[in-house]
Give the backbone structure.
Amino acid sequence: MERKPTKKAAAAATAAAHVSAAVAPDTPAAVPATPAAPAAAAKPASARVLLTEEQLVAQPARDYMNDAQLAFFRDRLRRQKEELLANVRDTSEHLRETEATSDVSDRATQEEEQALELRTRDRERKLLKKIDEALQRIEEGAYGYCAETGEPIGVRRLLARPTATLTIEAQERRERMQRMYGD
């Protein structure tokens, strides 16, 4: 019952705004009220429905990194981050639950498995940092553009590697320089 008065009040306010705009369209109060209402109503609908990969790839180049695309990548990065954090919790539990064995070969196997898990978690820790940096670039409006050239990285590359900061060409140049001169 609390919603009905709110809806009626909103409808009355909208009707009043349309009437005031029709009566005095050049007044400062009437001009911003009309365009702002449709824009505010459109944002939540586009924010709730995420694009599919097919829709993302099918969008024209002029729409590169629009709000819908940014929402898609923000969601993908957040889900990937949650998955990695869950892996960290599982690994921590697994390492705590590991029992010490007296057999030398069993102990060696166990230590090797733990070392492998820790290396994997270290790679995932670095990936978490890259995910946080990518989410920050989304907020800053720099996501999807090459850090070296400023050119669009490309939707297909970002689908394959959402944390990419360089175009394929810039990445290849960097790798060639690393091979020639080392790290």
